[in-house]
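Re: your question from the hallway

Yes, I did run it. Sequences:
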Amino acid sequence: MRGTMMDFPLTLTPILVRAGKLFGAREIVSRMPDKSLHRTDYASFHRRSLALAEALTAAGLKRGDRIATLMWNHAWHLEAYFGIPVAGGVLHTLNLRLHPDDIAYIAGHAEDRFLIVDDVLLPLYEQFRAKHRFERVIVVPLTGKPVPAGTESYEDFLKSATGSYTPPVLDENDAAGMCYTSGTTGKPKGVVYSHRATVLHTFAAALADTLAVCQRDTVVPVVPMFHANAWGLPFTAVMVGAKIVFPGPHLAPEPILDLFQDEKVTMSAGVPTIWMGMLGAMQKNPGKWKTQPGLRMVVGGSAPPVSMIRDFDALGWRLIQAWGMTETAPLGTVCNLKANLADLSIDEQYAYRAKQGIPAPFVECRVFSEEGEAAWDGKTMGELQVRGPWVAGSYYRLDDPDQKWTDDGWFRTGDVATIDGDGYVKLTDRTKDLIKSGGEWISSVDLENMLMGHPGVREAAVIAVPHPKWDERPLAVIVREEGSSVSADDLRKYLEPKIAKFWIPDAFEFIDAIPRTSTGKFLKAELRDRYKGWKWA
Amino acid sequence: MRGTMMDFPLTLTPILVRAGKLFGAREIVSRMPDKSLHRTDYASFHRRSLALAEALTAAGLKRGDRIATLMWNHAWHLEAYFGIPVAGGVLHTLNLRLHPDDIAYIAGHAEDRFLIVDDVLLPLYEQFRAKHRFERVIVVPLTGKPVPAGTESYEDFLKSATGSYTPPVLDENDAAGMCYTSGTTGKPKGVVYSHRATVLHTFAAALADTLAVCQRDTVVPVVPMFHANAWGLPFTAVMVGAKIVFPGPHLAPEPILDLFQDEKVTMSAGVPTIWMGMLGAMQKNPGKWKTQPGLRMVVGGSAPPVSMIRDFDALGWRLIQAWGMTETAPLGTVCNLKANLADLSIDEQYAYRAKQGIPAPFVECRVFSEEGEAAWDGKTMGELQVRGPWVAGSYYRLDDPDQKWTDDGWFRTGDVATIDGDGYVKLTDRTKDLIKSGGEWISSVDLENMLMGHPGVREAAVIAVPHPKWDERPLAVIVREEGSSVSADDLRKYLEPKIAKFWIPDAFEFIDAIPRTSTGKFLKAELRDRYKGWKWA
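Structure:
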């Protein structure tokens, strides 16, 4: 027996239409390349997104065609976020931090037909244009300069629309967007988000118990729109009608802090490196920026040290951890304190806030160790596996999916985690980042977080180095704070009361900067390579 | 091109499983018939719901079979809310306030196979048992007394489960529940909620911008679980892991106020009559009940007068209007103030809070007058029409659907409304409650709300009475406040500065009580009947 409810597909079209009707006057602010601020509103965004959809259709877009974007975070990219999928196309956000050869590979693998590109990113486009031929290259004239020959202006392109366009009725399982993982090994792999998965993810991110994005919020997606849809924040903000402030290409701490103050920002999202820089700037200039009380910042990509959560609390901001991956759209877990934890001591609460949180509704998590499914005891480590309606079930056109799915259909994240009795997931390491010493596991991430809690340490990365007796032993790579002269002995003494003796790194190396991936994560592969010939004293 | 995401159906099973895993220790409190409080937790609720599913299956439940409940709001009803649909059955909540003949008609029309009934409701069951034969009658022994011959004890029924039950994989379009509308005219009509519609509605109700139900909430569904799934609150509370407090059969103001105080309630939902009674009790006993600051009460079913919203504000509670129907699962619109209204004067803000709110995401609203689709100008009245993924597309087994759907697929609510430029829907009347005087429309609901703002008026209902010259004219039926001697002249003078002269009722009748429907709404049909022979002086 079936329900008698309407057959109403979950696509992005109703979100766009509703935003235009209900939130027309709500502002959308973009930081331009010249640092000026561009202001528009939802009414214009709605009209222009439909114009883009119409112009793309007139230009020959067929259902399911991939349209690439090579853009910073700004209002024009938001138009592409809706205009492309609403027309039946597939929004393919290219990661401008990748090597040009990788960008070309990805555009080729996805068979992207058109490209929408910021004029300030044309020099990057030049580096791979010979390797993938787009049928049309549509340039957003952010600087106001004429676009080069062989390309067309985005504004002219939009002018071709009549304004009397009605979006097609789409199937909710149709593709809306795609994104390639920027792993540190292997070829990038494509995830294709359906309309349905994107809509459900949007609902999930606007729940009171997850990110609680609401109409009264002013939201800054600092996380790039070419990283897992800026964690879905553009879709979520538009669904609820929040004011959106885009940082454009200016991701240094000071211009973002200026935006936070001047635009009265209440919510943001980004990786720990961004927040670390902003924390440093605020600590150097006490009282310089007046921000909204209770400003909340979602942090993902990698775990922030507890010391950072504490430091932000002291400034009246609230850091909220979340975990996800390109393959999970990305919202997997969010760390808010459950009601039963409200009576814990402050230190105990921080121990929970240092975890990645509990699974969002309809995201199911489990941990698998060599002995099978692990108990939710907060201790047993194993690979985190997930499933749910916005979790990838396969990669795009990849015959050898690298054993990323279990036989019973769960996605293997490659992250090592524990889950405690309250359901909080805590990532310890990537499977390849665990250190196995004398048959026991050591978490490099835990060590790094502890080390970064030392006032003399700015950054710490811990890697496994082969050892004749213990198989592997930890080596800590340290970047000192400016003016600090912290020594290996200081750090050993600092760690001793905190952890088991065998966890303490056998060696400390002091360097100037830790290499990073394009998403700001520590590039441990490079460190492992650098220290692969390590000789123990 | 399709997405590469998992095919993960939206059913109630993951909500139940997650609640058991993540929120096991969270409390569920029920007021028993003898007024004592029964306490259990999510772990037990999860286990017992699965036991119910297993026992039903063992008893012969087949996919799609209807299982009726005749129950108050309590933990056992919550088990039925999940145990029945998780087993593949259809939860059919019978409205115990209907006439026994209507209950029998409804159970027969739905072909309910089994009945789960509170022992305290057996006398009601006796009144219709001869008219619909259930295969099995399972009695919840709330009083602890043995169940009668020919029935079986719910507790014994649950004991038949082994505890090793795995719920079946269901299709998200399968029926999960059904509910018959309790209209004042015509035969009751059945709406069949799919799992998908129920899940999406659950997400919608937990958004930060709608009811914002969250894990830290303590929720009291005062609205009966046999009225449109208690507005979905049981599903929403379980999805987020809120503490749930059920009032059982005790719906008088004082026992509910005791619960609000003793259980530290933060959120509730019910019809205006309930809140009106509680307001009266609090005003008579100032300071008697200490409740949580910011306690929010969702009010639906009919619109509360602005004076009630103000009075509750003064007590530190927040009344939030919502609008919906059995046919909309029921969440349609919710009235929170948008960011752009924050700068309005207090009085202007109340004018918005007196409206029914803006459409929830994915609920689309429009107003149709005789001239076609009305502008969103806050003035043009017409029939409110809606569509969305949790809006009924038809009634269950009803060949003549009474023209409830438009040719282009929208549901015709029968409510008359305006929509303003900010998207706020304001109901004026049911189509049949409008008064047409000399070709102009008069809103009886507006008149009633104004009249109920007068301190001497407890209740006011306005109906149309035939008039030789004007076609129809308004007659106001008034229930005075205790001790008040307000007169027709007083009320005329009170209304004069507020409305157009032709809106002022030509006659005022003072009576002891206004007849009500089983859902607490004014039964205007009966008033119309009472005054049908009215002679104008």
